[in-house]
């Protein structure tokens, strides 16, 4: 019996009936370029449409705040909470579709990592535990994170409802699906993490019990958006404020989390590491993608983490990934699929794109449009 060959980066794919022209996605990247009211801008439309023109099959938006309470994390972050935001996102999604791409909205609640929120002066999290590290200066933060207040039961339920309502608005805006942000230290990840979740009620406990917020959010989003709408989930070990964090529960903990995600009915699992091809734990040679494949054998998996070299990207498909998402590689090469299909070298990432702030800059857009490919690949 022969083992089937891994798919090519340029093979087509369908996620819950949504056709993708290849296995290449743009990873979510915070760009703080919305208005003060959280309304997406024309610069954002040009930015996202450029990835679709460059041949990416799927574009995942930056983290979008989901309510007008505690979800917003950064000044300049876009939202999905009202009609004006929906209308602006519709123009962006239409531009991506017109260039042959598909787009999902990443739904995000910052929780205790909120640096700026126009709706609230305080922050909340699962427990009153001050986040490690310092605020991200690239997104306008300074100094230590604030001490959060532990969320009451009613506030947890309101946060879940915020995700559900944002998913409904994402569908209204024309998105092909949503990705629930359960990674990088934000609210859902705070509930997963035993360091930040010290609760003694039904929202805390061992790692399997700490998946409750994740599971109930997926269920609420699915009920609001419908069974024919793509719903994904992003999971990581590292946090934006704790880059080297590893789950103390090791591979067993990973299996519990990934199994909970799969059983909750998502259409894909998005896993991210700094270097996705490296072992997830020192005592186990498996990558996070391989661990995800073990725990959820039938679930499409998106891999992210320093995969801008084509051989690295293809290698993650060999590891069991279904799609590959590029972050910095896509910033440096919004036409990465075109370049690789033609056998041309990819450009190195220039950190100046994100300096002094991570917002979208006129010079960045001008350079992208000067490099606009004549033909988008299938």
TrEMBL record:
<keyword id="KW-0560">Oxidoreductase</keyword>
<protein>
    <submittedName>
        <fullName>NADH:flavin oxidoreductase</fullName>
        <ecNumber>1.-.-.-</ecNumber>
    </submittedName>
</protein>
<dbReference type="GO" id="GO:0016491">
    <property type="term" value="F:oxidoreductase activity"/>
</dbReference>
<keyword id="KW-0285">Flavoprotein</keyword>
<dbReference type="Pfam" id="PF00724">
    <property type="entry name" value="Oxidored_FMN"/>
</dbReference>
<feature type="domain" description="NADH:flavin oxidoreductase/NADH oxidase N-terminal">
    <location>
        <begin position="9"/>
        <end position="345"/>
    </location>
</feature>
<dbReference type="InterPro" id="IPR051799">
    <property type="entry name" value="NADH_flavin_oxidoreductase"/>
</dbReference>
<dbReference type="InterPro" id="IPR001155">
    <property type="entry name" value="OxRdtase_FMN_N"/>
</dbReference>
<dbReference type="GO" id="GO:0010181">
    <property type="term" value="F:FMN binding"/>
</dbReference>
<dbReference type="InterPro" id="IPR013785">
    <property type="entry name" value="Aldolase_TIM"/>
</dbReference>
């Amino acid at each position: 019996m022969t083992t089937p060959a891994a798919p090519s980066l340029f093979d087509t794919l369908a996620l819950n009936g949504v056709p993708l022209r290849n296995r290449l996605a743009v990873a979510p990247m915070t760009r703080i370029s919305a208005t003060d009211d959280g309304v997406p801008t024309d610069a954002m439309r040009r930015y996202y449409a450029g990835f679709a023109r460059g041949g990416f099959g799927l574009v995942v938006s930056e983290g979008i705040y989901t309510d007008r309470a505690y979800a917003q994390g950064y000044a300049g972050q876009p939202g999905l909470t009202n009609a004006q935001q929906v209308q602006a996102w519709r123009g962006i999604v239409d531009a991506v579709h017109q260039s042959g791409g598909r787009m999902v909205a990443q739904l995000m609640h910052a929780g205790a990592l909120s640096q700026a929120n126009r709706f609230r002066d305080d922050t909340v999290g699962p427990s009153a535990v001050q986040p490690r590290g310092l605020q991200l200066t690239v997104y306008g933060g300074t100094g230590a994170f604030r001490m959060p207040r532990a969320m009451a039961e009613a506030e947890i339920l309101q946060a879940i409802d915020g995700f559900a309502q944002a998913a409904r608005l994402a569908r209204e805006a024309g998105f092909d699906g949503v990705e629930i942000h359960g990674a990088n230290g934000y609210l859902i990840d705070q509930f997963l993490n035993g360091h930040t979740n010290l609760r003694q009620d039904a929202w805390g406990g061992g790692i399997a019990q700490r998946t409750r917020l994740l599971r109930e959010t997926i269920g609420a989003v699915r009920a609001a958006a419908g069974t024919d709408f793509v719903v994904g989930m992003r999971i990581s070990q590292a946090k934006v404020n704790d880059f080297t964090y590893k789950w103390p529960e090791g591979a067993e903990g990973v299996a519990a989390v990934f199994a909970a995600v799969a059983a909750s009915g998502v259409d894909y699992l998005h896993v991210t590491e700094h270097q996705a091809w490296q072992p997830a734990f020192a005592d186990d040679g498996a990558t996070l993608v391989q661990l995800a494949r073990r725990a959820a054998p039938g679930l499409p998996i998106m891999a992210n983490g320093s995969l801008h070299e084509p051989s690295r990207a293809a290698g993650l498909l060999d590891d069991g990934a279904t799609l590959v998402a590029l972050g910095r590689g896509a910033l440096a090469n919004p036409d990465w699929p075109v370049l690789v299909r033609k056998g041309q070298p990819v450009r190195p990432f220039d950190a100046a794109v994100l300096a002094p702030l991570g917002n979208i800059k006129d010079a960045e857009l001008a350079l992208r449009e000067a490099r606009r490919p004549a033909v988008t690949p299938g």
